[in-house]
């Protein structure tokens, strides 16, 4: 029996790319074993005419095309969540609108699930060619670091582009946390995952909305969401400096007994005080990140707000 594949596509200022995306997917549809397609475009508070483009497309192809439009920009993670909730397919693919995720790979993904029995077929960058060296360096460092300190494996270079079975989608949806770090959530649910290799390619139109700082904040959120090692580290550093200070006190007392009083060494004193003060602030900051996370979760705010849906 022919299956239904839902395509979840977060869109933020993608007026130029959506028509190209739709055309490219319609073109690969015949290779998908007669599967039905269901498009779920999520307009994540775009400032351009993305919503008009979606409305037009929906009128042109009401059978397959659906969209959800948010009341403002809630971020890609929220858009993904909304799309996964709306999707009704037996299989669900998550794809970017900019055609950086090659639609031709869908056929291979489908084969991975139907013939080889995987639950998820994802894509993974084999190289970072074309990326500034400094960015690759930070990315690689981030992955090495997070995999050391988190028990949930986060695959270096894994893209969000993937095809999942209904079972996996339901598992991902069962995690209704507010702080959503998809790379972690998708890995946390487990299941058998196969990675296809992926060659970097440029977006067909428009521009990326990720700056270096946005990526840095995103990686910090990822670490906070999937590891409590920074907290342990803070206590560890605190304990170590306590031990060092004990040794220091012993040294001072013994020196006093042997040589008598002295006022030398105030410079080193100030440096040490600065260092300890800095460490305390750092640890407070780490604590603050976790408490902030708890605060946001505790409010139980909705992950997104829908303004229009078809
Ligand atoms: N996106 C989104 N909300 C945002 C930022 C991005 O829905 O706040 C969407 C965007 O439209 C695209 C996908 O997420 O479909 C990936 O974004 P982008 O291409 O800018 O990221 P990159 O591929 O450069 O990592
Ligand atoms: Mg992109």
From TrEMBL:
Membrane-traversing stretches: 231-254, 266-291
**Keyword Kinase attributed:** no
Keywords, in A-Z order = Glycosyltransferase, Membrane, Transferase, Transmembrane, Transmembrane helix
First-level EC class:
transferase
Pfam families this protein is in? Glycos_transf_2
Give the SUPFAM superfamilies listed for this entry: Nucleotide-diphospho-sugar transferases
Record keyword Membrane present:
yes
Q: Which EC number(s) does the record attach to this protein?
A: 2.4.-.-
Q: Glycosyltransferase 2-like domain spans which residues?
A: 6-171
Gene3D superfamilies assigned? Spore Coat Polysaccharide Biosynthesis Protein SpsA, Chain A
Q: Tell me the GO molecular function terms.
A: glycosyltransferase activity
The record's annotation in PANTHER family points to:
GLYCOSYLTRANSFERASE CSBB-RELATED (PTHR48090:SF8), UNDECAPRENYL-PHOSPHATE 4-DEOXY-4-FORMAMIDO-L-ARABINOSE TRANSFERASE-RELATED (PTHR48090)
Instruction: Output this protein's name.
Output: Glycosyltransferase family 2 protein
């Amino acid at each position: 029996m022919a299956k239904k594949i839902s395509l979840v596509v977060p869109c933020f200022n993608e007026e130029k790319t959506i028509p190209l995306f739709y055309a490219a997917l319609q073109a690969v549809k015949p290779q998908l074993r007669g599967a039905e397609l269901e498009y779920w475009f999520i307009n994540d508070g775009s400032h351009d005419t993305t919503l008009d483009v979606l409305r037009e497309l929906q009128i042109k192809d009401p059978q397959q095309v659906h969209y959800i439009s948010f009341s403002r920009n809630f971020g890609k993670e929220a858009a993904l969540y909304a799309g996964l909730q709306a999707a009704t397919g037996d299989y669900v693919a998550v794809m970017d609108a900019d055609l950086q995720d090659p639609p031709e790979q869908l056929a291979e993904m489908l084969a991975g699930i139907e013939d080889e029995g995987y639950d998820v077929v994802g894509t993974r960058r084999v190289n970072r060619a074309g990326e500034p060296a400094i960015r690759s360096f930070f990315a690689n460092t981030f992955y090495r670091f997070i995999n050391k300190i988190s028990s949930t494996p986060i695959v270096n270079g894994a893209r969000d582009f993937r095809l999942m079975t209904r079972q996996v989608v339901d598992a991902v949806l069962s995690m209704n946390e507010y702080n959503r770090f998809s790379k972690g959530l998708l890995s946390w649910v487990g299941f058998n995952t196969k990675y296809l290799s992926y060659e970097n390619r440029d977006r067909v139109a428009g521009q990326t909305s990720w700056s270096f700082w946005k990526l840095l904040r995103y990686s910090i959120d990822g670490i906070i969401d999937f590891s409590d090692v920074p907290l342990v580290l803070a206590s560890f550093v605190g304990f170590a400096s306590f031990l060092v200070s004990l040794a220091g006190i012993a040294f001072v007392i013994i020196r006093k007994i042997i040589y008598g009083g002295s006022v030398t060494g105030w410079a080193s004193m100030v440096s040490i005080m600065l260092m300890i003060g800095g460490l305390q602030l750092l640890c407070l900051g780490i604590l603050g990140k976790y408490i902030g996370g708890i605060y946001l979760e505790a409010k139980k705010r909705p992950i997104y707000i829908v303004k229009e849906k078809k």
